[in-house]
Amino acid sequence: MALLDVENLSISFGGLRAVDSFSVSIEKGQLYGLIGPNGAGKTTVFNLLTGVYAPDEGFIRLNGKDITRLKTIEINKEGIARTFQNIRLFKELSVLDNVKVGLHNRYKYSTIEGLLRLPHYFSVEKQMNERAMELLKVFDLDQQADYLASNLPYGKQRKLEIARALATDPILLLLDEPAAGMNPNETKELMETIRFVRDHFDMTILLIEHDMKLVSGICEELTVLNFGKILTQGKTSDVLNDPEVITAYLGE
Amino acid sequence: MKSLKNNKNLYNNLITIGIVVVGYILVTILSAAGVLSNLLQGLLVPLCAYIILAVSLNLTVGILGELSLGHAGFMCVGAFTSAFFSKCTQNTITFAPLRFLIALLIGAACAGVIGFLIGMPVLRLKGDYLAIVTLAFGEIIKNIVNVLFIGKDAKGFHFSMKDSLSLNLEEGGDVIINGAQGITGTPKDSNFTVGVILIILTLLIVLNLIHSRDGRAIMSIRDNLIAAESVGIHITKYKLMAFTISAALAGTAGVLYSHNLNSLMATPKNFGYNMSIMILVFVVLGGIGNIRGSVIAAVVLTLLPELLRGLNDYRMLIYSIVLIVMMLYNWAPNMIAFRKKLANRFSRKKEVA
What we know:
The complex is a heterodimer of chains A (252) and B (353).
Chain A: E1 4-13, E2 16-26, E3 31-35, H1 42-49, E4 57-62, E5 65-66, H2 72-78, E6 80-82, H3 95-102, H4 111-116, H5 119-138, H6 154-167, E7 172-176, H7 184-201, E8 204-208, H8 212-218, E9 221-226, E10 229-235, H9 236-241, H10 243-250
Parallel strand pairs in A: 3-8, 3-9, 6-7, 7-8
Antiparallel strand pairs in A: 1-2, 1-4, 4-5, 9-10
Helix pairs in contact in A: 3-5, 3-6, 5-6
Chain B: H1 2-32, H2 38-63, H3 71-88, H4 96-122, H5 127-146, E1 149-153, E2 156-160, E3 174-178, E4 183-184, H6 192-210, H7 213-223, H8 225-230, H9 235-258, E5 263-264, H10 268-271, H11 273-286, H12 291-307, H13 315-331, H14 333-352
Antiparallel strand pairs in B: 1-2, 1-3, 4-5
Helix pairs in contact in B: 1-6, 2-6, 2-9, 2-11, 2-12, 3-4, 3-5, 3-9, 4-9, 6-9, 7-9, 11-12
């Protein structure tokens, strides 16, 4: 059974069918790519998967469980975490606190315990700090734990977003254009990080990307979207050599 | 590094509370030495109430990031419910501290409940819309209190929204809330010391909240609602939590305020729009999200007009200049950069030493 099973997912905005009969099946541990020209509906698919929009038709199953039409926070609790195309960090919080917000639902104490600083508060906060630092270390951010998130350089902000998403302990990670705005060196480093996350956290990753080097370098399978419809689906090397895909991307 | 960060928070919190304690000791000495004028002494308890209000509003404006213009309304609820209780039980509970403590809990709880009820529909709105609706609710609360008549006689409580005659009180009955004339004869249970204790309590609640799991959730909503939702933060719950706590603390300020006055009336000046704006001025000039700044701004901006009374003609001129200077100090980009540079130089010196 596939980890993520999407069947005939569709949504329209006004008269525009932004996503039309989108289906995909992703196995556990896979690195899966979703590509397509601008406006093809890639981010809309992410928004459907994470409950930002409710689909008009179709099913989403995670580990066999129907999660269609669940709310965003419920879907996150079921195990889907995401990053955003335009970075969305908690800018006025420290790097460490950004990750600790991600840990919110995994480490708990009551409001009263927090207000009165009961012993449980200190022990849980300590565990949270340790776990958060562990995650930051993976992304080489532990030295900047005290920085405000907005003071990090761009590439590190992207990494922090991934760290925050991982803090929620997901089984499926959605990355929306993780390499956007990065130079070739940073992209190369990011590719290694993504592979490392997959192996180290035993993660399944679905990513949207325009950088073909990154896509061909790390994705095992691809789906190509064009005008909301699936153009083609399959092994990365096959898809990228498909004349139809080349036409959609490069024009006639 | 982790411990350093926690210590830094603790250190900052201690400084804030230290400032309050030092201020308290200073004022006590000054007033014992007889330096303080009667006018200033009369201002001490309201000043404590203003500080609590500023800190509590900063929780909504700075930490939750929502503009609320109805804060005086919650203060009004706390003031009237607690004064009502104290007047009713004046003869049954003779031990004043206990009576005040119960009044305090009642005032805070009522303001919190009203805050919760108003927050539920209102917090769906954002920005200017939220500001306008909270402003309206603040005025509604004040106006309801102004037409409220409650009396008590042998048969129990009587209630009217017309006038005190229609309460139909029996002989020996007592009008407790008399419409626009408010409540007269509230026992004077609060004083400066109580006020300072309440300030410290408020500071502890707000600062502990900010540095807890819930506080981080609230601030994450402020910084990026969509991202907060994507990592599983329950938006409505935490918005309401911040708003309710903020309202309850404003209620506390109301309790303090009302138990310092013999006759409590809901006028536009003390519980209306003017008050809400004044508190917002404290918060904005002290620095949005800066709790210590709120305390300092409330003190400076409350005392300044009184201290400048001697310079009668120039009083408001100086006041407005101070407002502008504070605004520049806290918000001008160049000033922020300069302060950072200064702070860096200090910390480097420390390292060298």
